[in-house]
Amino acid sequence: MNSFVYDIPTKVYFGENQLGNLGKELKKFGSKVLLTYGGGSIKKIGLYDKVVKEIKEAGLELFELSGIEPNPRIDSVREGIAICKKEKIDVLLAVGGGSTIDATKFMAAGAFVEHDPWDFFVNDAPITQALPIVSILTLSATGSEMDTGGVISNPETQDKLGRQGRPMLPAVSFLDPTTTYTVSPYQTACGSSDIMSHILEVYFNLNQDLYMLDCFMEGLMKTVIKYAPIAMKNPTNYEARANLMWASSWAINGFIRGGKQQAWSCHPIEHEISAIYDITHGLGLAILTPRWMEYCLNEKTVSKYVQFGINVFGINSTLPPMEIAKESIERLNDFFFNQLELKSTFTELNIDDSNFELMAKKACDEGVIEGFIPLNESDIKKIYEMCL
Ligand code: NZQ
Ligand code: ZN
After folding, report:
1. What are the tens digits of pLDDT across the range 147-182?
2. Which residues, by range, are in coiled-coil regions (predicted)?
3. Among 44, 64, 239, 244, which residue's Cβ finds the most Cβ atoms within 10 Å?
4. Among the listed residues 159, 251, 248, the one whose alpha carbon sits nearest the alpha carbon of residue 201
5. 332 alpha carbon to ligand 2 midpoint, in Å?
C-alpha cells in the first residue's frame, strides 16, 4: 500500500433548500461575483432567478458570463479572465455541469497570470493561485464540483486537454438533486457512463492492496448501475438523482485513488475523439471502455475482471475465470447500450478511421500510457478500430 495524503476541503451543501446559504458563502470571499453558466438550461429550470435573488439579497455585485459550451472552449476561458481582471472579481460562481465548472476553474487561475490560459495546457504553466470558486451543480457526471481538474478544448489545434491544479478546487459546492430533474435521459446516460469510467479507471489496477477502497468502488458502481436507468425513466425520482449526484463527486474527488499512481487509459483516448468530433464525453467513454477491457484481458489481468464480474454483477463465481471475465464485459455492454440506450459504435456517430493514427499518437503523447496495461500508439489505434 502506497502512502498518500487525504485532503479534500470542498464544503458541500447537499440536498434541497440549501440555496439560502449561497449569499453567506459568497460573502466570505468578497463582494464582486462573476456568475458563469452554459447555454441557458439554468434559466429554463428556474435556477438562474433563484441564484440572482440570493446574490442580490446578500448585497453582492453581480457580473455574468454565459454561453459556456459543452466541451468548453479556451475562448470562453479567455473571455472570463478578461472580466475577472477588468472588474476585479472576488469570487466565481459556476452554475451548471462539468463544462461550466471546468471553464470557470481556468478563469479563476488565469486571473492571476499574464500569459494566455492555453499555456496551462501545452506549456505546463504553473497554477499557483486561483480566485475562489463556488459551484452549483446541475448534472451528475464529471465530479468537477469536488476535484482539482478540468478539461478544455481548443478548436484551432483540435486539442482537448486536461490539467489539474490544487488552487482550482471549488471552495464550496451546492448539490441539490432536484436541479438535475430536467437533465435529459441521454445526458443522464452519458453522465452515468462518465461516473462509471472514473471508477473503472482506478479499479482496474494490478496493484490491488486497498481492499477497503475496492469495496467502496464496487458499491459506487452498483449505485450507478441501479439508479441510472431509474433516473432515465423517472427523471424526478429524488432517490435516484441523489444517489447519482453524490456518486459523481466521490468517484473522482481523490478518495478512491488512495495511493494508486496508475495513469488513466480511457479518458485520454476519449478526449481525442471529443476534440475532433465534439461528441459527448460520456458517450465516447461508453463506446471505448468495454473495448479497452476486451483489449486488456489476458491471463495476467483476468483476476481483476473476475472480482469485478462477481462483486458488481453477481456473476456465478464457480465458472472458469476467463468465462467470468468475458461475461463481465458483456454485462457492461448491456448496461451501456441496452439499459442506458447509448449508441455502441463510432460508425453510428459517423466517425471513421481517418483520424485514428493522429488521435492515437496524441492520446499517448507519442509515448506510452502507463495504465492498467501499458498502451502505445499501435495499441490505442487497435482499440479505436474495435469501436467502429
Ligand atoms: O449548457 P447548458 O444550457 O447548461 O446545457 C447543458 C449541456 O447542453 C445540459 N445541462 C446541464 N445541466 C442541465 C442540463 N440540461 C437540463 N437540465 C439541467 N439541469 O447538459 C449538457 C451537457 O453539459 P456539460 O456541462 O457539458 O456536461 P458534463 O457535466 O458531462 O461535462 C462534460 C465536460 O466535462 C469534462 C468533459 O471532458 C466535458 O468537457 N470532464 C471534466 C472532468 C473534471 N473536471 O474532472 C473529468 C471528466 O472526466 C471529464 O473529462
Ligand atoms: Zn470523465
Report:
1. 999 999 999 999 999 999 999 999 999 999 999 999
2. none
3. 244
4. 251
5. 17
Record the cell numbers describing residue 77, joined without a space: 476561458
User: What is the whole-number distance in angstroms between the Cα of residue 282 and the centre of ligand 2?
Assistant: 7
Residue 210: predicted pLDDT: 85
pLDDT at 347 over 90: yes
CATH architecture of the domain with range 186-386: Up-down Bundle (1.20)
Q: Provide the pLDDT confidence category of residue 259 given band limits of 50, 70 and 90.
A: confident
Q: In what order do the strands lie in the sheet with 133-137?
A: 11-14, 172-175, 133-137, 91-96, 32-37, 61-65
Residues 256/258/263/268 CA torsion (nearest 10 deg): 30
Q: How far is CA 117 from CA 106, 107, 109, in A?
A: 7, 8, 8
Closest atom of ligand 1 to 285 CA is 48
Q: Report the alpha-carbon distance of residue 101 to residue 168 in Å, rounded.
A: 10
Q: How far apart are CA 355 and CA 254, in angstroms?
A: 33
The domain at 11-179 falls in which architecture? 3-Layer(aba) Sandwich (3.40)
| Residue partners of 206: CB distance under 8 A and separation at least 6 | 300, 301, 304, 372
Report which protein residue has its CA nearest ligand 1's atom 38.
Answer: 71
CA 207 to ligand 1 centroid distance, Å: 32
- ∠ CA 236-238-243 to the nearest 5 degrees? 125
The domain locations on the chain are 11-179, 186-386
Of all protein residues, the one whose alpha carbon is nearest to atom 46 of ligand 1 is: 142
